[in-house]
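Quick look at the format.
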Amino acid sequence: MFRAVGFGSAGVSGAESKATTPAQLTVAGRGNLGRSLARALQARLVPARTGFRLPRRGLLFLAVPDGAVSEMATRIAQMKPPAALGIVHVSGALGLDALSPLEGNPRGSFHPLQSFPMPRDPSAFR
């Protein structure tokens, strides 16, 4: 069993699911939000720029500014993400339509419950 904790710009939402292997969590982002989210999820952090390597499975959190979500979704779609990779954004201002280029993948959004003015230790989210 793994515990996936989602943060929409980071508020806490927990979900438990049975799996034979732990979920692979990756955060594509920059700045305080990307670093804080990756640290809290104990996830791999990759820069949200051209050339980053897509995970083969698990969840990819797009921790980018609201205006960059659709562009990132288009770029990721052009990289032909594997069907086992779910992609979520953390914008409270956008719906799932921002991820429409990724219709072949599981998609979601985690809306913010608090802001990230500075990086925090994972214990801050408990």
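Next, a different chain entirely:
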Amino acid sequence: MTDHPSHSDQGRGHALFDHFRLRRLVRENHGTAITQLAVHSRHPNLVATVGANQASVYDNEHCGNHLDIVTNYTAPASAAHTDDEPRFTCCAWLRVHPHPMDAWLAIGGHDGVIRLLSIARSAEFRRLGAPTAAGAALPALVELQSHPTLPVLLAAYADGSVRYWRLDDERDVSGAETSAETKCSLRLTAEDCQRVWRLKASALYISADGTYFLAGTRTGEIRRVMLPEALMSATTMMADNDDGELLMQPHYTAIDCISMADDDAIVSKSASGKLVIGSLGLREVVRTVQLHDENIDTRSRFGLSGDSQGRVTVYQRYTGEVLREFHHRRANRPVLCCAFAREDRNLLVVGEDGCIWRWDYVDDATLAEWAKFHAELQERQPAATTGSA
């Protein structure tokens, strides 16, 4: 592995988190769990969440210190089952798409349908994996990953399959195929994706250059699957007999998160809380650490792990050293997703309580000003009490 942090880097990590304070608490109106949040890679002020049958997008930067709502999407119940509202499980910002002046958000749910939302238009405009004419539907969605260089979305489903969806079809903005029921202009069925892999996948990660993806499986394996350029020009579904290359099996339970710390270091975590750092070049495990038992974010400069008691632990990704633990006395429900934003200056946490907790970096000058204010307030309190008597 390369680019290991120095002791001074770790020291700066400790000092950085000494300055974090809980600054914002937002409760979403659906009153149920927020299952995932996603921070836009190019516009980090955009933060998306999904919970129940809603997706919300917030501005995390341009409205002072607030988390102000930009748009909210509520999925309608299906026409066939009026009480059957889709429940969203995952979301991802599209890094490449045909309309660079817009921001596209993909959301997936228990109904197996991926809905694409335009933030500029505040509207759903496309569905991927809609039921076929015969009524066949895809399994529930587990994870969505956006390709870094192509208008492509990879989706993992509850049956362990992974599907490759192209997003460069221009029919989505024409309105020619708009459905009266959904108001979206293009509905693609399961037969319209370009590729299906049967991998027993439970977690995905696409490489930085987009040439392959890693799949963490239900059985604890890590597999690498190459992404041929021919997929972008395919007009029909390609064969799905590629099981990928087995790199290692560092876990014995399902992998719920996988990423890469650099070009060689694969970071994965199982549902049991076991964190493993493996070498892509050596095809072997380098380090194992036991962490908390819930959601983990391995895509930041630092690792994050949330537990069933509402705590979030920040750790050093290469060594597993715990740098800081964040917890508030009012947070006592399981953490389902956590992520850094604004160059690790914001820590965003969501979970079963239906709230967004945001911890912010506060500089020395502001901390000193706060300390001065509280000291002056304490000095005035006795005089105020005497005067009221």
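The two ends are 69 Å apart (CA to CA).

See the schema section for token definitions.
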